[in-house]
Write a structure and sequence with these properties.
15 helices; five-stranded mixed beta sheet; alpha+beta; globular
């Protein structure tokens, strides 16, 4: 059971008390509106914070301290959840029950979290220039590495074009050019702004009582000089004119991406039906796209669909020979039209339900999975526990799936093709 506690206005703690695990998880996220001006600043900030603090001024000191806490780990956390970008840290550490007699891990981890977030190592009143420049290079390398994954690159280009009037088209980590332009002074000023204005979401999974977790957080969080800037509610896809984009690159295999819109988001009662519709259509090896477009007709090397429930977007991605683009496009649309007509068997519906239910059952298999589900569900506006979600999925009828399919409309496409043709 999740217990929600408002520590201060705009500062929310969610605790999942669970004694099944040897490891605890704690995440702390500052919530920001996803916008071009801030995306790169937000993505860079946690990496800079984890490079040194007043008490632990370099990576060697930080690593040594974490080793003393039974090999605890702290990593950066940058998420995009609908209209929001979250920035913070993710901590994994041993539960106090398994420490040696007299030792504690949770309390010193909370103290270390305070050290990271509130006492960074500075130089002339701002972040150290050398650390900022080093982490800028790392972040740019991470962003540019996407070019090596042509499927991910093509999908990012589709969303960028399709969502040009919507923040959902912005890259989660920002653009390389924006990262390169960041300087230590403005980044530090943004950090102070983030501490002052941003809503804060904290999530804990472990055996400790919520009252104890609260007592460890409130003393240092109370020292923040806050002027809260509340975030607006999540919004559905911001409609704009569709487009058919095309790009030429040295690739051995073409990448066809298609984007569809639906008014059904994860805040709608029809959401479970749309989730099942996506599973039947293209999410898995028993889906219509896989069984027909790939296996039966051999039009592609890979194919699959995804549903972005926070915005009401369904995408399809296929790896193809470039000369089969039109045939593949037509067959994908033909399979969707079949779903809209109700050409879905009970066996397909049952297989889709089992796939979704199996995924939901796994949300309680580890502390990380628990944090991942609840932390993002709360931000996206979906107010269902996994158990409630499973109950809703089981109750979906074939007619409801067909009705959900009927709401899907093709909006935009993007085709990445080879400069000298594809195999």
């Amino acid at each position: 059971m999740i217990k929600t506690i408002e520590l201060f206005p705009g500062v929310t703690l969610r605790c999942c008390r669970d004694d099944r695990f040897k490891q605890n998880v704690l995440s702390l996220q500052f919530l920001r509106p996803m916008c071009r001006e801030e995306a790169s600043l937000n993505a860079l900030l946690p990496a800079v914070l984890l490079r040194g603090t007043e008490q632990y001024p370099d990576l060697q000191a930080i690593t040594q301290h974490l080793d003393e806490l039974y090999g605890a780990a702290v990593s950066t956390l940058v998420r995009r959840v609908g209209d929001y970008q979250t920035v913070g840290v993710y901590c994994g550490f041993m539960d106090d029950r398994f420490a040696l007699e007299g030792d504690r891990v949770l309390a010193p981890m909370m103290a270390f979290l305070e050290e990271i977030l509130l006492h960074p190592v500075l130089e002339e009143g701002v972040f150290q220039k050398g650390i900022v420049e080093s982490e800028k290079k790392n972040l740019i390398a991470t962003i540019e590495s996407q070019l090596n994954d042509k499927r991910a690159y093509a999908m990012a280009q589709l969303l960028k074009t399709m969502c040009r009037e919507d923040s959902f088209g912005l890259p989660r980590l920002g653009e390389p050019e924006a990262v390169a332009a960041i300087e230590a002074g403005p980044l530090y000023a943004h950090y102070r702004k983030l501490l002052r204005e941003s809503p804060i979401q904290i999530f804990y999974v472990g055996s400790a009582e919520s009252d104890y977790v609260e007592s460890l957080l409130k003393p240092w969080l109370s020292r923040l000089n806050r002027d809260l800037n509340a975030l607006p509610a999540q919004t559905a896809f911001q409609m704009c004119e569709g487009s058919d984009g095309e790009e030429t690159m040295e690739v051995a295999q073409g990448k066809l991406c298609m984007g569809f819109t639906t008014p059904i988001t994860n805040r709608c009662p029809e959401f479970p039906a749309m989730q099942l519709m996506n599973t039947i259509f293209g999410a898995g090896m028993t889906s219509k796209l896989f069984m027909n477009v790939r296996e039966k007709l051999s039009l592609c090397y890979s194919v699959g669909s995804g549903y972005y429930g926070t915005k009401g977007i369904v995408t399809v991605s296929a790896g193809i020979d470039c000369d089969k683009e039109q045939l593949t496009r037509e067959e994908i649309l033909r399979q969707l039209e079949g779903c809209k007509r109700g050409d879905i068997t009970e066996a397909e519906l049952n297989a889709a339900k089992e796939a979704v239910l199996s995924s939901l059952r796994a949300t309680h298999d580890s502390p990380g999975a628990i944090e991942g589900y609840y932390a993002t569900a709360a931000l996206s506006g979906m107010n269902m526990t996994p158990a409630q979600y499973m109950e809703a999925v089981e109750a979906v009828t074939l007619e409801q799936v067909v009705a959900a399919a009927g709401t899907l409309q093709l909006h935009s496409t993007y085709f990445l093709k080879g400069a000298s043709g594809c195999n």
